[in-house]
Amino acid sequence: MRGIRQLAQHLDISIGTVSRALNGRPDVNPETRKRVLEAAEKLGYVANQSGRSLRQGTTNVIGLMMESTKENVEYSDNFFLGLTGGLQSVFSRHNLDLVMLPCPNDEDPLEYLKRMVGRRIVDAMIISATQRIDRRIDLLVSSKIPFVALGRSSSGGSHTWIDLDFEGVANSAVDRLVERGHRRIAIAAPSSDINLGYVFVDAYRQALERNGIAYDPSLVIRVKSSEQGGYLAAHKMLLLEDRPTAIILIYELMAIGLYRRLAESGVVPGRDVAVIGFREEPRAKFLSPALTCFRMSLHDLGVELGETLLATMPGFKDIYPEGAQNTIWPLELAPGESDGFVVDRGG
User: Fold this and answer.
1) Most CB contacts within 10 A, which of 63, 143, 219, 304?
2) Mean pLDDT across the stretch 12-27?
3) Res 49: pLDDT
4) Per-residue pLDDT averaged across 50-61, rounded?
5) What are phi and psi of 184, to 5 degrees?
6) CB 172 within 8 A of CB 145
């Protein structure tokens, strides 16, 4: 195994050029970078990462903090794995590594993050499941650690975030149902303090009012973001005296539980009640009737998230000068049959 000095001597170029090529710096000729990488592989060169980290004061590691709860395990398997593919494609350009930081269900996320920050195990952070008031953001801002929040929050003053277009989903879903004659439209929203629930409910209320429909708090059914939550949402909906004719879900796996509870009562989505799901979910694609929901590319979202984070980091912001900006990520309606129930306007 050879070190960087031997690698530079073998190629007859400077150690600095070899170092920049190995670290993916943009000021290296592509042909030179190719020569360096090919020689490094041939000669079995492996960088001394611990020594480099000590010299540079960096780890070359990015942390992705996520909740590790019973309710989101299935969601994480799909959403976060899809997201990390895009993140890795960005970070690999610069020889950066991504580590998952799952916060246990029984630990305060702020205390967990304090421990990660204190140990300096990462150079930058991506945090998810942002709360309406999220003290993690205040901690990262005060610690001057580059970070991006996957989700908006009222905390932290000026910071960079990317969030899904919950307003667009609410507007599109409500308008679509109103066009089919629905006036009693329920939503299944998260029972936790996660900020997306507040954003979605606010957008839902505004969409109703824009269509001349009074907001009814009893139609906001708060449940856990899970398949079981969808089951409970259907149960609560069926118990309402003035039963809604349509329901919008804010979490993809809710649809599976909701369909199961409706089937137990002989209620058929698309025939007896209109259902619009949130994000297209592989495990829900075999539901019958086919679920009307929204789709997006998790890989592309991951790429955007990765480039946005690098734009906040001193060593990379010149490479991504337009990247450090807040972004609302769009979703596209994927029509199915679950919202085919049309209310008789004359009835």
Assistant:
1) 63
2) 82
3) 47
4) 59
5) -100, 90
6) no
Average pLDDT, the chain: 88
* The pLDDT of residue 55: 44
Distance CA 136, CA 70 (A): 22
Residues 154, 132 contacting (CB under 8 angstroms): yes
Domain 166-296 is in which class?
Answer: alpha beta
**Start-end ranges of CATH 3.40.50.2300 in the chain?**
61-159+297-329, 166-296
Torsion angle, alpha carbons of 136, 137, 141, 143, to 10: 10
Q: What is the CATH number of domain 61-159+297-329?
A: 3.40.50.2300
pLDDT of residue 318: 87
What's the token pair of residue 230? 């969808």
Q: What is the pTM of this model?
A: 0.80
183's enclosing H/E stretch is none
Q: Is the pLDDT of residue 54 over 60?
A: no
Residue type, 305: L
**Please, is 183 exposed, middle or buried when counting C-beta atoms within 10 Å of its C-beta (0-12, 13-18, 19+)?**
middle
> Which sign does the torsion angle of CA 206, 212, 217, 221 carry?
negative
Domain with CATH 1.10.260.40 in the chain: 4-47
In which residue are the tokens 């494609």 written?
Answer: 89
The predicted pLDDT at position 23 comes to: 75
